[in-house]
Design a protein that fits this description.
- The complex is a heterotrimer.
- The longest helix of chain A is centred in the middle third of the chain and has 27 residues.
- Chain A is globular, with a radius of gyration of 20 Å.
- Helices cover about 70% and strands about 0% of the residues of chain A.
- A two-stranded antiparallel ribbon of chain B has the order 1-2.
- The longest helix of chain B has about 30 residues.
- Chain C is α/β, with parallel strands linked by helices.
- Chain C contains 10 helices and 10 strands.
- In chain C, strands 6-7-8-3-9-10 form a 6-stranded mixed beta sheet, with helices on both faces. In chain C, strands 2-1-4-5 form a 4-stranded antiparallel beta sheet, covered by helices on one side.
- In chain C, helix 4 crosses helix 5.
- Classes of the chains: A mainly alpha, B mainly alpha, C alpha/beta.
- Chains A and B meet through helix 5, helix 12 and helix 14 of A and helix 3, helix 4, helix 9, helix 11 and helix 12 of B.
């Protein structure tokens, strides 16, 4: 499934990556830029990862903070036990991936909206459990980590590298047989099953891949921040940031989460000093406006401005087939 | 631990809590029942209901109970407007679109409240807030009894509305079979707007009542929102009477769970029940959205 | 995918690619299908008719794996497929089309068919081969000119064709067609009938649910009649149209449909 016009974008990505990688060389002491870059890339990576399940497969999860938090605590605890933090990243990812399987196998049988609701429950339950596991997580007093750290430039590049990995993964998934199967099950689970798509397996694989990437991001975050608190890394705000980044950028597209994360942090950065609460308000309004007028998000808007219409259509707002009176999408709970 | 007295006291607490839980969940159930929309903005309206009650109390010394009732018409109009302006326009899309839309609305409400009232804890103290009544050996907070009684009255009124008026019957018919209702000449668009209005009115009302029991912040609605989901899923989603049952199950489960675990873990009970109920309740989700033959 | 050991019972000894043995499906108190036993002949077209609500689509759903039978078993292509998932049934070589056509709306016509080619029938297939194979199927189904259009832009007749093409792309040995002629104009029906014949000529066993009587009687080698979930007649088209019980089922209880179109 190659959408027409993807090629220039595909060529633009490596060029953009290389250009961004040069920034720490040019401005090694510009902490503001490097920090902004770090957070943006960290969320580009997570937005792209979230989008593999949320955008490609159409399962909107409000619970990804659980993966982020698990990744962060995996790195933190291993670090405290003497591991080199960078070496813990794969384990942070695996820990998140394992948890995603535990959660996904039962909940991905639910059809879309119920999955979303269940993930809110799972995410909040995890946060409260972690707050209460004070022996392990430090509970409400948090967990202080060692302060031996590389430079801001190093973090900038590490986040960029993870974002690049997430980008390549997303592009690969999208163009592969696996991606075709996800697209099919997103639009009609029953029909996909009928044509031989192993929907339960595919959904879970998508979930695991994206959870792994988010777990790694959590690990990097722990190393950067040097202090963890369950209310912070397991927060609902963390979860909804990913939903907003993908939706506002353009759900189900490759460039959507990238644009979304960039705008998210630009808006946050701009508003944070004067109106700290306002960026979520702005995002709420943006979300409503986008659902009403441009379900493909900023990526769709960009495509519209560029006069290209064939952008992969959105997950969220596919109209019901004409002639049927708005039936619930018949997606069986087949496992 | 399990003295008879203890048990009775837990049961009384559970029943009182169930009353509150039921009244805060009815709105969600009605909206879901009529249009199969999961109203994530319910949390926002619960919170707003509490803050509006605070506003009346500060401006006119209005009692929270009266404030809760005053909320009803205002929130009814707000809900109607939300349906007409927002929800209706994405109803033809997949159900997830309306869920996300209402989630956006929740964010907006929450953050507007944050910028108006700030993030400090707010509370309303009335003359009877700290009073308690004694029945035999049990002391019961007056506020809980009042909330329970008022909740019962309002649910009785809802029952009358649903069973003995044309609008109510049309609404119930739409819950049971929207296609048939449409064929029978019921204007399902108007019923949907009405349901959204009633649902939101209930949220505003419940939010007002809750000011008697809890302090609140702009984040106030979220845990109750999840509890409401648990309740309507336990109750069978389609079934309005099931709300009462779901509320009772949750209230009892929470009260008894506290005997075995830390109080700070109490909310986990609701979330765990939610996930389990969603997955295994055959009378719930699966019967509605089950595979078609 | 659970694949119970092939069962070499009496039914599978025959060369029938699809056998139902005492299949019953209840929904609560309602018996939708009651003890239906039938062996479909290989390479032939079998028609499945009956008044609305007779249980025809339920039988298809039981075969396709979307519903599990309450009792009884389904044996296809040498495997007891009772309780298999739909995707496993499809990969075994048995594909069902849906009565309400459901193309993937955001995919192009070609991509729709590619889903069937990439995931159906046995061996794994690379994306490029899936594309080539899908194109060949579209050619066969007469939709090649529309390959790049979004599926949501098709007319009803084209959607029905797409539904068939998608199923064909899974390389089925047995194809179950659920009302592929319903809602078509007379000339579209003629074209669709030709397509079904061409599919049959490829050696694919076909079972079709149909209300367009003249077409089904024309096409079928054998007709099964279902009423209130029970199989009430089984024979050549001529035998079935002469059957008294069949006529009563349509005229007496059923009402608005008649065996002669």
């Amino acid at each position: 499934m190659k959408a027409a016009g993807l090629r220039p974008a595909a060529a633009a990505a490596p060029a953009l990556g290389v250009a961004l990688a040069l920034v720490p060389l040019i401005a090694p002491h510009n902490i503001t830029v490097l920090n902004l870059g770090f957070f943006t890339f960290l969320y580009v990576a997570q937005g792209l990862a979230w989008n593999i399940l949320g955008g490609f497969a159409g399962y909107i999860s409000f619970g990804y903070a659980a993966f982020f938090g698990l990744g962060a605590y995996t790195t933190a605890l291993l670090w405290l036990h003497g591991w080199t933090p960078v070496l813990t990243f794969p384990l942070a990812g695996l820990c998140a991936a394992a948890f995603s399987l535990v959660v996904g196998v039962p909940t991905l049988r639910l059809i879309g909206p119920y999955f979303s609701i269940a993930t809110i429950g799972v995410g909040e339950a995890m946060r409260i459990l972690m707050l209460n596991l004070d022996k392990v997580t430090g509970g409400a007093s948090g967990l202080n980590l060692p302060t031996v750290v590389p430079s801001k430039g190093w973090f900038y590049l590490a986040a960029l590298a993870i974002a690049a990995v997430a980008y390549v993964t997303a592009v690969w998934v999208r163009g592969s047989r696996f991606g075709l199967g996800l697209a099919a099950l997103r639009m009609d689970q029953d029909a996909a099953e009928t044509l031989g798509v192993r929907t339960a397996l595919f959904k879970n694989v998508a979930h695991v891949i994206s959870a792994f990437l988010v777990g790694v991001c959590g690990g990097l975050f722990a190393m950067y921040f040097q202090y963890l608190h369950p209310d912070n890394v397991f927060s609902f705000t963390e979860s909804i940031s990913l939903v907003l980044i993908a939706l506002i950028g353009g759900i189900g597209t490759i460039w959507g989460p990238i644009l979304g994360a960039a705008v998210f942090f630009a808006v946050q950065d701009y508003l944070q000093t004067s109106y700290p609460a306002f960026h979520l308000l702005v995002y709420g309004v943006l979300l409503i406006v986008i659902l009403l007028f441009e379900p493909r998000g900023l990526a769709g808007l960009a495509a519209r401005l560029a006069g290209r219409r064939r952008v992969p259509a959105p997950v969220a707002v596919t109209p019901a087939a004409p002639g049927t009176v708005a039936p619930p999408p018949a997606q069986g709970g087949a496992l | 631990m399990f003295t008879a007295q203890n048990l009775i006291s837990i049961c009384i607490t559970s029943i009182l809590t169930a009353g509150l839980y039921a009244v805060m969940s009815y709105g969600l159930a009605i909206i879901y029942g009529v249009m199969k929309v999961i109203n994530l903005s319910n949390a926002g309206f619960l919170m707003l209901g509490a803050f509006m009650t605070l506003v009346y109390s500060q401006a006119w010394h209005l009692d929270p109970i009266a404030g809760a009732f005053l909320n009803m018409p205002l929130f009814f109009l707000a809900g109607w407007a939300v349906y007409v302006l927002l929800v209706r326009r994405v109803r033809q899309a997949l159900p997830i679109a309306s869920l996300l839309m209402l989630f956006g609305l929740w964010l907006v409400l929450q953050n507007v409240a944050l910028s108006v009232w700030g993030s400090e804890d707010q509370s309303i103290i009335t003359r009877y807030t700290y009073k308690a009544l004694s029945f035999f050996d049990y002391r019961l907070a007056v506020t809980r009894l009042v909330v329970f009684a008022v909740a019962l009255v309002v649910m009785a009124l809802l029952h009358v509305l649903l069973n003995h008026t044309y609008v109510g019957k049309a609404l119930r018919a739409t819950v049971q079979d929207p296609q048939a209702a449409l064929l029978a000449g019921i204007d399902t668009e108007r019923i949907s707007a009405l349901a959204f209005g009633i649902g939101t009115a209930f949220a505003g009302f419940a939010g007002g009542l809750m000011t008697l029991l809890f302090s609140f912040t702009p984040d106030f609605g979220a845990p109750f929102q999840l509890k409401s989901f648990t309740i309507i899923v336990l109750g069978g989603l389609e079934n309005l009477a099931g709300v009462t049952i779901g509320a009772a199950i949750l209230a009892f489960a929470e009260s008894f769970a506290v005997l075995f675990m830390r109080a700070s873990l109490q909310n986990v009970v609701a979330y765990a029940l939610l996930v389990v109920a969603l997955i295994v309740m055959p009378g719930g989700v699966t019967s509605v959205f089950g595979r078609r033959s | 995918m659970s694949a119970p050991a092939p069962d070499f019972g009496a039914a599978t000894m025959t060369s029938s690619p699809l056998v139902l043995e005492h299949v019953t499906k209840r929904f609560g108190g309602l018996v939708a299908v009651e003890s239906v036993t039938v062996a479909v002949e290989s390479g032939k077209i079998t028609g499945l008719i009956g008044p609305n609500g007779a249980g025809k689509t339920t039988i298809f759903s039981v075969v396709s794996g979307h519903l599990a039978p309450t009792t009884g078993r389904v044996v296809a292509l040498g495997h007891d497929i009772t309780g298999w998932s739909p995707h496993a049934v499809c990969r075994l070589g048995l594909c069902v089309t849906h009565q309400l056509v459901r193309p993937f709306p955001d995919l192009s016509v070609l991509e729709n068919v590619m889903v069937g080619a990439a995931f159906g029938g046995g061996a794994r297939i690379a994306a490029r081969d899936a594309r080539r194979e899908a194109m060949a199927v579209l050619d066969f189904a007469g939709l090649a000119a529309r390959a790049e259009q979004p599926a949501s832009a098709l007319t009803l007749a084209q959607r029905k064709r797409l539904e068939i093409a998608r199923a064909l792309a899974t390389r089925p040995s047995v194809l179950l067609l659920d009302e592929v002629l319903a809602g078509l104009t007379p000339s579209e029906v003629v074209q669709a009938v030709t397509l079904v014949r061409q599919i049959s000529a490829r050696g694919i066993t076909i079972v079709m649910i149909e209300h367009v009587m003249h077409a089904v009687m024309n096409l079928s080698h054998r007709v099964l009649v279902l009423n209130y979930g029970r199989l009430i007649a089984d024979g050549t088209p001529a035998e079935v149209t002469g059957n008294r019980e069949v006529i009563e089922a349509y005229l007496g209880a059923g009402g608005d449909e008649t065996p002669h179109d």
